[in-house]
């Protein structure tokens, strides 16, 4: 692939990323649209049509795989940047991503942290221990009743 072809393809992928960004139903996990199957399907249709401008035989699966790959690579690079910041490195030593679309995917940075659980784990106190002599009496009573049958 020549340099100009690679640049054309990169520019096209950047256009596709913009379409993806414009359709938050595909990526904004905290929005109601993200859970709306109809809005998500419509957004995928728009993205697929855009993607097919350059790759006419592409399927919806191809588009999903491509964006899953873009997101995964972005997430890995973001982790490197964040880990570098947390390490206490000086500003000049903080990792700089060389991923050519890193900045264009930066709208996802808040989406990469797990959503808070809707239910909270409630820690219950340990159960009270029953009076064992009372339990022994109950066992004896049950044993007697079973023996009569």
Automatic annotation (TrEMBL):
Pfam families: MADF_DNA_bdg. Residues 15-113 form the MADF domain. SMART domains: MADF. This is MADF domain-containing protein. It comes from Acyrthosiphon pisum (Pea aphid). The lineage of its organism: Eukaryota, Metazoa, Ecdysozoa, Arthropoda, Hexapoda.
């Amino acid at each position: 692939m020549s340099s100009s072809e690679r640049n054309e393809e990169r520019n096209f992928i950047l256009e596709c990323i913009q379409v993806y960004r414009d359709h938050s139903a595909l990526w904004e996990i905290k929005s109601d649209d993200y859970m709306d199957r109809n809005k998500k399907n419509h957004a995928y249709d728009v993205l697929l049509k855009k993607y097919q401008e350059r790759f006419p035989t592409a399927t919806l699966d191809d588009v999903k795989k491509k964006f899953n790959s873009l997101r995964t690579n972005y997430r890995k690079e973001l982790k490197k940047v964040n880990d570098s910041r947390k390490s206490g490195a000086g500003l000049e030593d903080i990792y700089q991503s060389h991923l050519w679309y890193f900045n264009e995917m930066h709208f996802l940075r808040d989406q990469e942290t797990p959503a808070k659980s809707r239910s909270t784990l409630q820690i219950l106190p340990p159960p009270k221990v029953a009076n064992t002599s009372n339990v022994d009496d109950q066992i004896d009573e049950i044993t007697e009743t079973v023996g009569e049958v």
